[in-house]
Amino acid sequence: MADAPHSEAVDTQRPFAIGAVVPDFSLPDSDGSSAQLSQLLSSQRIVLLFYRGHW
Q: 47, 28, 4: which is closest to 12 by C-alpha?
């Protein structure tokens, strides 16, 4: 996973509030390609879901 290009520290122990602006990040998509949040937001709305554990 690539680090977000910002200099602000993000507290990963606290959840973001509903409607909060989250820092930009990249993660692999279902095809293994890199998906960057800022690029996706430029063309569509995004819903983030986080699942604990493995499938």
A: 4
Q: What angle do CA 35, 55, 32 make, to 5 degrees?
A: 25
Q: How far is it, in rounded angstroms, from Cα 16 to Cα 22?
A: 7
> What is the helix (H) or strand (E) element at residue 41, kind and residue range?
helix 37-41
Query: Which residue type does 6 have?
Result: H
Reported as a single tens digit per residue, the pLDDT across 18-29 is 888 888 989 898
Rounded to two decimals, the pTM is: 0.53
Bridge partners (DSSP) of residue 26 are 36
| Locus of tokens 């989250």 | 22
